[in-house]
Amino acid sequence: MSEKWPIGVFASVDAGLGVHLDVAKELGVPTIQLHTPSKENRNKQAADAFLDKCKGMGITVTAVFGGFEGESYADIATTARTVGLVPEATRAERAAEFKEISDFAKLLGCGVVGMHIGFVPDKNSDSYKSLLSITRDVLDHVAANGQRMHLETGQESADHLLEFIADVDRPNLRINFDPANMILYGTGNPIEALKKVGHLVASVHCKDAKWAPEGERGTSWGSEVALGEGDVGMETYLRTLNDAGYTGPLTIEREIAHDRERQKADIGAAVQLLQSLKQKIG
Ligand code: MG
Question: Domain range holding 48?
């Protein structure tokens, strides 16, 4: 993609909190990250039909994000227990399913798969060691498909994430930076975190949030809000991405799938905000 910072939006077919493709088209957004469709829709026929639709709308798929049955973001403790490859009871089956998601992304001609790996455990635990080996196994499959995997941020501090990525030690592991998640999970100032991990950032979410009250950070959710209305500071965020040399898509996320009209209105306003900041900074 030659244009710097093409606008994107997180999209869904039949699972996940993204907008549907027609909304991306209506808002004139040229790229999407796609939440993986459910299992029965991960096949060549579905991929071809989806690609056809994207082509007709002039939309490029820049990443396919994995998601698994049984994941719940109800509260931070439930998220830690249920999300990603970290929970040991489902780790092997989810790793196998993620390889299928990578295969589906390949059918879409997409070179990036993303995931929330979960709350990475302490470096000295057995769970950490086995997480390293299964992550390498997944990454090798992803590499054989000619793809990179981007880890969504938020559930770890910047330092813990850097340590994990260094320990996994695979060249196709990068970061999908989500500044709002750092606030929602209470894992650290997103701008300071971005300065630390910027060299590994290969895709981003443009999402905003307000911190939970002091004393509750890390145990209670902060609140996700429309872009520009939260504590991230969008201009500083984009300037920091610019300083890190990031030129990829700016993918808007607004996770209020229960209110489709407001979701669309907020994303429309986010597109305008990003376009004006692009002019100012880019
Ligand atoms: Mg995100």
Answer: 7-281
CA of 19 to the centre of ligand 1 (A): 14
Q: What is the pLDDT of residues 171-181, one digit of tens each?
A: 999 999 999 99
Report how far ligand 1's centroid is from the alpha carbon of 152 (Å): 6
Q: Is residue 120 part of a domain?
A: yes
**CB neighbours of 138 closer than 8 A, spacing ≥ 6?**
85, 95, 98, 99, 102, 149
CATH number at residue 148: 3.20.20.150
In the chain, how many domains are there?
1
Give 240 Cα–ligand 1 centroid separation in angstroms. 18
Span from the CA of 181 to the centroid of ligand 1 (angstroms): 7
How far is the centre of ligand 1, averaged over its atoms, from the C-alpha of 97 (Å)?
A: 21
Each residue's pLDDT tens digit, 142-169: 999 999 999 999 989 999 999 999 999 9
Over the stretch 229-248, which tens digit does the pLDDT of each residue have? 999 999 999 999 999 999 99
Give 151 Cα–ligand 1 centroid separation in angstroms.
10
Could you tell me whether strands 173-177 and 201-206 are parallel, antiparallel, or unpaired per DSSP bridges? parallel
Inside any domain, residue 139: yes
257 pLDDT more than 90: no
Nearest of 87, 12, 79 to residue 50 by alpha carbon:
12
What is the C-alpha separation between 20 and 255, in angstroms, rounded? 13
pTM of model > 0.90: yes
In a domain, 1, yes or no: no
